[in-house]
Each structure stands twice: as C-alpha cells, then as structure tokens.
Write a structure and sequence with these properties.
With 132 residues, this protein is of the alpha+beta class. It has 4 helices and 8 strands. A two-stranded antiparallel sheet has the order 1-2. Bound molecules: iron/sulfur cluster (SF4) (2 copies). One iron/sulfur cluster binds next to loops.
Length: 132
Amino acid sequence: MHCSHCGVCCEKTEMMLSNADIERLEKLSHDRQEFVRYDRHGFARLKNRHELCVFYDVEKCRCQIYRHRPLGCRIYPVIYSEQEGIVVDDLCPTQTTISKRELKREGKKLMELLKRIDNEARAREALYACIG
Ligand code: SF4
Ligand code: SF4
C-alpha cells in the first residue's frame, strides 16, 4: 500500500480507539480528554478540531503521532462495511495500491480489532450502569 499522506482520512474522523491505543498515547503524555470522545454506544473515538483529527498537524500536513497512531489508522484504508464486509475505502486516493494479500491480512486484523473494541465498549457500559 502506498500512502500519499494526503490527510483525507484525518478529516472529520470517526476512528474508533481500543484501550491499548488510548493507553499508548497516554504514555506519550497525551491526556485522554484531549483526544478521546465516547459516542452514545460507549465506543471511544478520536476527537476532531476544526473538522480534522486533533492529531493532524495542519502546517506540516502530517499526523503528529504517525509512529504511534491508533491501529485503526494503520489498517485504513481497509474498513468494515455493514453491507459488503471487509473492503477498501474508496475515499482514499491510493486505494488501488492495496494488494489482495494486504486486504486479506489487514481485514483479519480489523475484525480482531473491532471485536476487541466491541468487548471494551460493552464492559464500559456495564461499569457505567453499575456506578449509575
Ligand atoms: S486517505 Fe489514503 S493516501 Fe490519504 S493519508 Fe489516508 S491512507 Fe494515506
Ligand atoms: S491519528 Fe493520525 S492518522 Fe489517525 S486520523 Fe488522526 S491524524 Fe490521521
């Protein structure tokens, strides 16, 4: 896969985060309140600022945390579609550079990640229900 760093995938991001993503970024001194929002289903997602991911550096046109970015950002442009399953997002301008082999490998990683994130959201919701 060839990424041109165009930043399209960092616009109005809804990228979901696992606990491991959050903890890794906290270790780099990022406060979770700075970059995490929780949606109504309890999923942790990246926050935006001025319609761009909070980690996107507008001046340099780069992700500020590229080496440590969330797993979902690494797997992108491979995404999960309710209708089609694992697909390559057609918003990515270099989508055609993904090989079938990469699609299969990244798709497997994505399904594992989504399962983990789903379990973590359920656990979070259960905890909130307990503490009221
Ligand atoms: S949209 Fe595609 S080419 Fe552009 S930064 Fe994201 S992954 Fe890279
Ligand atoms: S973490 Fe980086 S790659 Fe992921 S959406 Fe934000 S700026 Fe883009």
